[in-house]
Amino acid sequence: MISAIRPLGTCSRRLLPQYFRLRLTTPFSTAGQPRMTEAHRALGLWISYKTSLPAHENIYTIPNILTFSRLIAAPVIGYLILHEQHLAALGLFIYAGATDLIDGWIARKWNLQTVVGTVIDPMADKTLMTVLTVSLAMQGAIPLPLAILILGRDILLSLAAVYYRYISLLPPKTLARYWDFSLPSAEVHPTGISKVNTALQLGLIGWTMGTMAIGGDLGWWGPEGALKAMWYIVGTTTVWSGASYIYTKDAVKILTSRKVK
Predict the structure, then answer these.
(1) How do residues 184-208 score in pLDDT, each as one tens digit?
(2) What 3-state DSSP class applies to 82?
(3) CB–CB of 170/53 below 8 Å?
(4) Which pLDDT tens digit goes with each residue over 42-87?
(5) CA 29, CA 128: separation in Å to the nearest integer?
(6) HSE (CB half, 13 Å, CA atoms) of 38?
(7) How far is CA 34 from CA 3, 31, 102, 152, in A?
């Protein structure tokens, strides 16, 4: 009788329960080598399963906090628009736009990028755009067909995100693990036209809110002039950007445990 498994390394010892740290013994086989037992097979499968699970990442970073604040600001801005507090709504909208620029810069400069950041950043943008689109459409500030187009695209992309999150999450697939964003499973890379479309949509929203905040039409730059032309431009880029996620390779990337740090 000899030891069939030598003492485990430091990494493996952290993964195994106490009773698995004992040396397992088994007699020699006829070939003079230690014989694999069912205990060894079970131990190997257990180690393989535990090491295949993705590691938790730190989601409490300054860029993510700024992004969450933008997410929370969205319904507040919508409330202010519906209650015709246009100057306050415009100020909070400017804050949301500033955080959208700052969080990415901080993440890149101090190496604070997280997988969850690639998910909640576009989520915050879409939430802000959805709330503002609905609020402004209810106020008659933007045409209803354009509002339906913007909202329809975002709803389809949100459903796709729910699907990819589910298929990429390693088992066990529970609700607790599904909503645990410190367990990354897929990351989203916005396409080039999608970034342009987001900028144009935010520009249109800001332009419209600015017009409402000063309390009147801006002549040729108002709804009857260039702003009306902007409606058609945004409508075109909205359709184009939605389609780009279908034909662009690696727009959505499924992660493996080795890619998670």
Answers:
(1) 677 777 788 988 998 899 899 998 9
(2) helix
(3) yes
(4) 666 555 555 544 556 677 888 889 999 999 999 999 999 999 999 9
(5) 67
(6) 0
(7) 9, 9, 60, 63
